[in-house]
Amino acid sequence: MSKNTDILKKFGKRVREIRLQKGITSQITLANKAGLDRTYIGGVERGERNVGLKNIEKIAKAIGVSIDDLVKF
Prior knowledge:
Blueprint: H1 3-21, H2 27-34, H3 38-45, H4 53-63, H5 67-70
Helix pairs in contact: 2-3, 2-4
């Protein structure tokens, strides 16, 4: 596994972990709150998407955490 793939997987795991902790039980709900597509959120959580900064901000706001909290792994 390359370092790039590793960080994507870590970020995706963190998004899923916080999403569930915050009681957002579905990717669809998160996607709607963030203004993103459900398949995009699924790709992020599986570590398949290299997420841009604007989308990281959207995800963080939708989950209700700071960007700092989202990238602490």
